[in-house]
Amino acid sequence: MATLTTTLLLLLLSLLNNVQSNPNNNNNNNGDDDDFATSLDRSKAHGLGLGLKREKLTHLRLYWHDVVSGPNPTTIMVSSPNRTSASGFGTVIMIDDALTLGPDLKKSKLVGRAQGLYAVASQTEIGLIMAMNFAFMEGKYNGSSISIMGRNRVFTKVREMPIIGGSGLFRFARGYVQASTHSVNVKTGDAVVEYNVYVLHY
Ligand SMILES: *[C@@H]1O[C@H](CO)[C@@H](O)[C@H](O)[C@H]1NC(C)=O
Ligand SMILES: *[C@@H]1O[C@H](CO)[C@@H](O)[C@H](O)[C@H]1NC(C)=O
């Protein structure tokens, strides 16, 4: 029993010793390969302007307007596949869609734009990959953005997509959005989608 304790103690000491002599833990500028990285104390990060006081959860409800038709479309097809399929697999569309507080594009307040692209990533259904930034232009969020990337099976009632990051007030953002189609004009293809955004940030 005593030997076991001694062995454990020696193991612990050697681990501690390793930590101390590991050059990766040195923070002096002696030309080590990892000189460009510095560990920051989170509790002091506020003083650096990072604002890491307390993580909060924010819910935003926005309407996303995909205008395909008319004189001022906000989408453009950048690639049309040379092999046709029922799902349109391979089609890539770039967007600069309005984000408003209400579903009526003309009457409701514009708070930002959804800029990015979506592409048909499924061979068997209308399944999109969305890669877009919600760029906010209103109030305290003006200039801040959140980045969304995920799978969007557009005929499903609620589609969930991850928030993979953010900028400005949304630094360190993570979370998810839930998209549900509000209306589609079957003649033109124009669509309004309600986005409920749940984002953790500081
Ligand atoms: C589509 O493009 C690829 C690559 O250029 C080519 O190999 C293929 O034959 C094309 N398919 C059709 C249906 O034209
Ligand atoms: C948002 O910020 C831009 C750039 O700083 C500024 O030009 C614009 O007026 C701001 N918009 C609002 C609604 O505050």
UniProtKB/TrEMBL annotation:
Predominant localisation class: secreted
InterPro entries assigned to the protein according to its UniProt record, in alphabetical order: Allene_oxi_cyc_Dirigent, Dirigent
Gene3D superfamilies: Allene oxide cyclase-like (2.40.480.10)
Compartments, as annotated in UniProt: Secreted, Extracellular space, Apoplast
Signal peptide: 1-21
Entry's Gene Ontology BP terms: phenylpropanoid biosynthetic process
Keyword Transferase: no
Keywords linked to the UniProt accession: Apoplast, Secreted, Signal
CC annotations in GO: apoplast
Described purpose of this protein according to its UniProt entry: Dirigent proteins impart stereoselectivity on the phenoxy radical-coupling reaction, yielding optically active lignans from two molecules of coniferyl alcohol in the biosynthesis of lignans, flavonolignans, and alkaloids and thus plays a central role in plant secondary metabolism.
Family: Belongs to the plant dirigent protein family.
Binding partners and assembly: Homodimer.
The name this protein goes by in its record: Dirigent protein
Source organism of the structure: Stephania japonica
